[in-house]
Amino acid sequence: MRRDLSGERFHRTPRRLVMGVSAGSTILCFATTFRSACFNNWFMMLIDRSKQRNSRRRPLALEKLDARRVLAAFLWSSDVDGAWSDAGNWQVTEGTSVTGVPGSGDTVIIDRPGADPVITIDSVTTVDEIVTAETLAVTDKLTVNRTLDVAGTLRWSNGDLFTNGLSIDAEGRFEITGTPGSLSSSIRNEGTVDQSVSFAPTARSIVIENAASGTWTTTNSLASDAGFAMTFNNRGVFQKTGDANAIFPNTNSKFTHFEGSQIVVTGGTLSLPTSGTGSEPSTGSTFNVAAGATLDLLEGIGHYTGTYTGVGDGRVEIASGASFQAGFSPTVLDFPEDMLHWTGGLVQASNGTIENQGFMHWSGDDGSRSLRGRMFVNTETIVHEGSSESLLDAGGQGTLMTNASGAVIQLRDTGSLVGGKLVNEGVVESNGESTELDSKLFAELGSRVEVTSGTLNLTGGGSFASTELVVANAAELVFNASAFNDPVILRDGAVISGSGDGKIEFRKGRFDSTSNNAAIDFQPGLFQWSGGEFVRNIRNLGEVTVVATDSPDAGPLAVVTSSLNN
Q1: Mean predicted confidence (pLDDT) in 463-472
Q2: What is the pLDDT of residue 30?
Q3: Region for residue 521 given its phi and psi (left: phi exceeds 0; alpha: psi -120 to 50; beta: otherwise)
Q4: 133: nearest Cα among 230, 198, 61
Q5: Does residue 31 register a pLDDT over 80?
Q6: How big is the CA angle at 85 (ends 83 and 89), to the nearest 5 degrees?
Q7: How far apart are CA 363 and CA 323, in angstroms?
Q8: Predicted pLDDT at 122
Q9: d(C-alpha 228, C-alpha 199), whole Å
Q10: Which is nearest to 296 in space by CA: 265, 325, 327?
């Protein structure tokens, strides 16, 4: 009388079944009605060994497999490199549908502790499921009906790769090289992906989950043409290397950033597609871009919340055709000088606040930028440069942008800021050849407008509390607005003062006040009145020089309703 490994008695004539998978670990089971305990012990031994290996080599994810499928598994039996199609490399457990080489209904386990064999798929292959801790080289079409779990290396260099789910474990690696065919599989990467060539197109869109522990590195576009849409959810590191440019060619592709993730660009240009959705926006990321490299952040509509920071000497760009939209939570931009450039497209802060806490360059000579919403706040530095305009617009309602106390907006070159309202609590500085502020300027208490070179034209009027106008030698600040539509209104008790060796000219428009308690106070020779109107009582505490002008833009000199009082 014998007992099986569970201790149960049996009297049937036993049939030996070898279930071991490596030298020194063979377990003999007997094919009887009482063999289940034996199999369970063997299966748990594999799982326990997998967990023990985790600290010294690679984890084998056997716990992901149903025990009944492991009982019917094909096991790789060689410690040396070999071909998948060679039946001599396989050890067959009970219950397989075929013998020799795994088939379409079979589960495959590849695990050789102490060895590193390379298993080459050298012919068209279909199996039910694969778990591998070794190197699996795909050189012909591979179809996996269920999942392909990689705790070793998956090297895809030729043929199509079709699975119902590809999982790269924390110590796993996926190499995409050579001339791979079509990919039809969602991917979860917790380890390393090294992609040196593009995927071929497929009719099936895919989802890629790059986990917090995952690093995905590419030197080229992920997909080879516009027929391949994908959703890439990045919680880890997505890295672009090499000098070639990389894009997502399908307009339906989407790249969503999650808090704690990173984009690294060491060379060339990486162009990302749309990002997030209104209900599930991107939630934050760090962009690390090397000198000479560019990250084109967005093509199409992107939805953002959270904090986005920059590292490196490269360039991050929001370009023409992009629509950067803030979600209902605050969106923070924090980039070093000369890194973040908004060159075209739309930035919208209608549902949540967009706050610039670093340097943001509104730049370019072609096209225009459109800022919409009433919750855009600058707390550090915005540099407006180039010859194109930035439109503060919100469907006719007007955009409200706030330049906070201590913050700076620099107007350079020959560009213009048009429409909407600019609330200035800090400094608006012009140092270009000829710049224009056509937005309504709400100059708050203690704010300043500085012109260090060239000419700044204030054409949008506005509302002034006590503020200072500073104009350097040979520079000009010109009030040049429409007489009735865009007045400069001095609030109750406001004093507009001025200093510097340049010139402030009231050429066209209207100075008005909300009370009898407003004043202007300019040092001798600074403020020149060549046209326009003073309306209601505005006290003059300094000096106003009345000058004749031949400029066709100058309006008539006039004091309406009351006088300009000394």
Answers
A1: 98
A2: 36
A3: beta
A4: 61
A5: no
A6: 65
A7: 16
A8: 96
A9: 9
A10: 265
